[in-house]
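Consortium newsletter contribution from the modelling node. Members have asked for a concrete example of what our holo predictions look like. Here is one, prepared for the manganese (II) ion complex that several groups have been discussing at recent meetings.
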Amino acid sequence: MAHDLIDTMRKQIDEINLQILDLINKRATLVQELGKEKEKQGSNRFDPERERQMLNLLIENNKGPFNDSTVRHLFKQIFQVSLDLQNDDKKKVLLVSRKKQAEDTVITVKGVEFGGGNPILIAGPCSVESYEQVKAVAENHIKRGLRTLRGGAYKPRTSPYDFQGLGEEGLQILKRIGDEYNLVTISEIVTPGDLEMASNYIDVIQIGARNMQNFELLKAAGRLNKPILLKRGLSATIEEFIYAAEYILSEGNAQVMLCERGIRTYEKATRNTLDISAVPLLKQETHLPVFVDVTHSTGRRDLLLPTAKAGIAVGSDGIMVEVHPDPDVALSDAKQQLNIPDFNEFVDSLLASGLYKGEVV
Ligand code: PEP
Ligand code: MN
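And here is the predicted structure:
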């Protein structure tokens, strides 16, 4: 008998649950429609005054047994998730989003596919120092079947007294080498006014970690017809990173690739903390190619290979790594660049792992 009563009451509770579910979903649909209407009229979606009125009405009519503070808490939750739902709607329209474009963006430069499903290596010295220095790396690239060469001409350095890069002369060296060896060249540009000039020399423009939220630089890069490799800021959240990429796309340039390069944490054993989960997250959230820079994230030669393997294993489109003919005398990042024999060993180990399949067929 007592069991029957419990069963009946449980059935009633189930029914009420379904009614509540139906009602909160009805409410959510209405809130969504209201949000769209507000957007049309240009008014703000979050309206604290309106929330206050709704809460007051609820409290006035609260007959218990829930006390007022519980009712306030419960409804505040409902208001919050409704607002989140509106924000989700907004997110859907981001140009970088998978919801906007389901298929992967593939950027092809000089026959090299970025994001085409075959992970590639973006390798080269931290800084362009001389024609001979870059040539030594390029010749090795050719021997190893690599197609993409990086090298900094404008170096954002912590100290103003450190080597700042060769500037335009460095870009000219990259242009010459890129033409001579048919390599795709990548170099960082730090000033919006230099973008047009740099486009004449290099194939891919890098926007570095320190400039990830330099919005004028992002907008100017968005007006170029050149692929952009955007690195994650030193302390940028994934959301901020995605919005930074959106700045470029919003100006019309859809050729954007992302690069996870480690973030600042309390950990001192590595130069930065490689956020490996950023890779699958960015691949899920966006349709853009995603790379992992193992040199600037770890800052340690002994960690380059395992982190590169990890990067590819979690779905990155390739790895960035620094290589210099004589790292001991490099003008920047002397500590973590690989020399050419060690770089070749790195490439061999990656090939042996089966994660990296090589590039020139
Ligand atoms: C670089 O790639 O040369 C560089 C400076 O990296 P980041 O902007 O990630 O520090
Ligand atoms: Mn470097």
